[in-house]
Amino acid sequence: MSTPLLETRNLEIRFGGVIAANDVSLTIESGRNLAIIGPNGAGKTTFLNICTGWLKPTRGQVLFEGKDITPLPPRKIVRRGVARAFQIPQLFTEHTALENLLIAVAAREGLRNPLQDLHRIPERDEVMHLLEMVNCADVAERPVVELSEGQRKLIDIAVALALKPRLLLMDEPTSGVASSQKHRIMEILVGALAQAQVTSVFVEHDMGIVEKYADEVAVWNAGNVQLRGTPREVLEHPDVIRDVIGEVV
Amino acid sequence: MDTVSSSARPQADRAPGLRLLATLLGVAALAVVPFVAPTMQLLVNLALAKGLAVMGVTVLLRAGQVSFGHALYFAVAAYGGAFLMTAMPGADLLLVLVVGVAGATVSGLLVGLFVVRYRGIFFGMLNLAFSMIFWSILEKFYHVTGGADGIRLPRPTVLGMELGRADFELILFYLSIALMLGLGWFTIRWFASPVGQLFQTIKTNETRLEYLGVSPRRALLSGYLLSAVLCGAGGVIMGVAQGVVTPEYAWWIRSGEMVFIAVLGGSGSVQGAFIGALIYEFVRTYASAFAGDVWQMLLGGFLLVIILFAPRGVIGIVEALGRRGTRSEDAK
Amino acid sequence: MNLTIFVLALFDGIAYAALVFIVALGLTLIFGVMRILNVAHGSLYAIGAYATVSLTGAFLSMGFAPVFAFPLMLVSAILVGVLLGGPIEWLLLRRIYDKPEVLQLLVTFAVFMILEDVQRLVWGSQPYFQAAALQSLGNVTLFGVTYTVYQLILLPAVALALLLGLRFFLRRTVIGKLILATTEDREAAQSIGIDADKVFLLTFIVGAALAGLGGALASPTTSILPGMGADMIVLSFAVVATAGLGQIEGAALTALLIGLGRSFAVYVWPETAVLVPYLIMVLVLLVRPEGLFGSPAARKI
Q: B7 to chain A nearest CA, in Å?
């Protein structure tokens, strides 16, 4: 069996009296997109934050491609191939959509020439392609503060993808996107991820998306994984229906 | 800490050609000062020196940070130049510049390594504290630094030649213009470069910067070093132009003055740094000539007016007028 | 260093710290409530000193006893607070609360510049000296060292009284609690009916008056010169930043720390006396960027 892409061992983190991560041991295999579902406050975002180094667990380890990344700061974890997209898009608010991506690429490539114009770097085509992929090519030159919530979400994801990660952690990727667009965007996203050989882990509340685009689902509850399996297995489980999905409408 | 509007890019440049033309005209006007208005030559030279230093402050403003102690680098470079002249009488002007700027760079690195961990008011105050420590040393350690009287900076040689005063001042003047153009051009390019753009994201989203795999401290340090170099260049020029360096070069009011001018001219703008410096020097000189004890009041009042009514500074006013001009053009 | 020198340094430090604290108190109060670092505080201090000297001089020449200098100090302080502090807040600061921090600071810097010239216009550049109040209290001898009662007893007593008084005022009186509430959360305070505008105005007047009082109290101990405001403001910054912006009790301690540090340096290594406050500030801020007593919010990365 090959080394899992991401592995957590006995992760625990406490905030005061609250245990937000309770002995979480999980492996994520390369190529298998994992959806994380669960009620609010179950610790899903906390888990993502621990995996990316933003929070340090009180106990346990995080391993990426077999190497311990637990003590590393986010920027070093990012350099190893993990990227993050946020629930509230984290963008550079005085730059345009295009510039946000160009900056991401500049970071990735470590471009140092002080006389080179960011707008003329050779990776510009790659960036335009990314923008097209998330349906935002037409707003490339607009400042991101002028974009809709959904568009900012997509740019946020595009910025993460621009880093060419091997693992992409997304927090509610399609929230804020117009519902008519959700599936289409997800379709494109998953296709692009597969083509670029990027594995994704995403927190999601839309079970339709989960059912269609996740290879596996992990159900979070009270700081730990309650259940794990294929979308069908998980979404039809009575506990999940009761706790997560709620009454069938 | 939010700061003055110093966008990563200028407002929609309706007429970039016009901007370039205005800049060229401005530079040309400066270049002929020694012939057209020789009595103003020293004043303009001093203004250019200040403008260089203000550019240093401007760089940091682009990252949303303000230093209240950048006079430190101004003084380190100036005193570095003076020490060189004392140790090596007849040193070349360019050598003085290089040594001074090198001193500023080294001290910029040493202080910067500490200071880049902080933001906002704390960043500003720590810089202030370092500059005041240096000021205190300059003021009190008389035997090394000359104390409150400072150190004389005798005229350096130029390309091996000892020049008379008028000739030297002319050379210095054009050197200052060259530095303005060269360093100004470099800074503008740096702002547009990948490194410079990453630096400017510190203002808007350090979290994202960290998540791009970049160390925000490193990013801030790169700009900080540039700002120290620029302040240092200004300090050397001023010291050479005045022929003496005094502890006042490191005084906190001088740092405050730099920030003042940056905002006056148009924070975040390289051209604004020099325009602001020229306005400042002119008002200071002529106000104190005609109105004696009220030049500070006038400048203070001017600053208040700018902040309250035109926070984007003189450049902002000019741009707004320009936009209105092009709009009425479009309407015709 | 023998005992006499030690005691002298100690007394110097205490007297100096008391003065610096009174000025720093106003500065930190203003910052704590209004989140504005008032550069003009230095000028208000200087004007308090000048005003006291002028008023005292006038009263003495009219034949009044030196003891009147003390109430005149209060008068100067109140004049500075109301006639200068009030208009500054009302006409200027009020317009810039929503603006970026840098601009707010530059506004107070501009006011500082203006007031420096006002001083020069009204009082000129020559030194003033009016030590009647200091002399009127005589001397005291402690531990073999003779010192003025004014500096060793009165100044620290006033400083302490102000510290305790302000604490009491903020925590126990209604207005004080309104100020604290507005400081905590301005919008919440306004939504329950607190007039934040008035709170800010009052705070600034009090802060300015404290600066003026500091100057008034300092005036008998030194000659009044242009530039004394500039010296005092940057020293006050050091005290306030080291303590933690907005920390009132902390400012008392750091004032003492800095005052003693400086006064001992004068006797041990005089050239370093001026840099000691800033060195302390740097050392403290490098370890605790939020100040000795501040709450950690300072460091970002």
A: 7
CB-CB contact of B200 with B191 (8 Å): yes
Check residue A1 and give its pLDDT.
54
What are the C-alpha distances in Å from C217 to residues C75, C236, C254? Answer: 12, 16, 20
SS (H, E, C) chain A: CCCCCEEEEEEEEEECCEEEEEEEEEEECCCCCEEEECCCCCCHHHHHHHHCCCCCCCEEEEEECCEECCCCCHHHHHHCCEEEECCCCCCCCCCEHHHHHHHHHHHHHCCCCCCCCHHHCCCHHHHHHHHHHCCCHHHCCCEHHHCCHHHHHHHHHHHHHHCCCCEEEEECCCCCCCHHHHHHHHHHHHHHHHHHCCEEEEECCCHHHHHHHCCEEEEEECCEEEEEECHHHHHCCHHHHHHHHCCCC
Q: Find chain A residues with C-beta within 8 A of B195's C-beta.
A: 106, 111-114
Distance between CA atoms of B171 and B14, rounded to whole angstroms?
A: 37
CA-wise closest residue to B258 among B150, B128, B99: B128
Mean residue pLDDT of chain A comes to 89
- Cβ atoms of B62 and B222 closer than 8 Å: no
Contact of B48 with B277, CB cutoff 8 Å: yes
Place of tokens 């960036």: A127
User: B residues 113-152 near C, CB within 8 Å?
Assistant: 114, 117-122, 125-126, 128-130, 132-133, 136-137, 139-142
Summarised one tens digit per residue, pLDDT across range B189-205 is 999 999 999 999 999 99
C-alpha to C-alpha distances, B160 to B92, B95, B122, B250, nearest whole angstrom: 7, 11, 46, 31
Residues 211-240 of C with CB under 8 A from B: 230, 234, 237-238
Cα separation, C133 vs C57, whole angstroms: 11
Q: 6-65 in B: which are within 8 Å (CB) of A?
A: 7-8
Q: Which residues contact B214 (CB under 8 A, 6 or more apart)?
A: A75, A107, B198
Tokens of B216: 């925000």
A169, A197 Cβ separation under 8 angstroms: no
**pTM for the predicted model, two decimal places:** 0.90
Tens digit of each residue's pLDDT, chain A (249 residues): 578 899 999 999 988 788 888 888 999 999 899 999 988 888 899 999 999 999 999 999 999 999 999 999 999 999 999 999 998 999 999 999 999 999 999 999 999 999 999 999 999 999 999 898 888 899 999 999 999 888 898 899 999 999 999 999 999 888 878 888 888 888 888 888 888 889 999 999 888 889 889 999 999 888 888 888 898 888 888 878 777 776 443
Structure tokens at A84: 């993050």
Interface test with A, best of B208, B217, B221, B230 (most A CBs within 10 A): B208
- ipTM for the predicted complex: 0.91
Nearest alpha carbon to residue C110 among B292, B256, B313: B256
Taking Cα atoms as reference points, which of A203, A241, A216, A227 lies closest to residue A41? Answer: A203
Say how many Å lie between the first and final Cα of chain A, rounded: 42
**Probe site for chain A from B6, B11, B197, B203 (most A CB atoms < 10 A):** B197
What b/e sequence results for B281-311 when a residue is b if at least 16 CB atoms lie within 10 Å of its CB, and e otherwise? beebbebeeeeebbbbbbbbbbbbebbeeeb
CB contact under 8 A, B197 and A99: yes
Lowest mean pLDDT segment, chosen from B84-93, B130-139, C283-292: C283-292
C193 alpha-carbon distance from chain centroid: 31
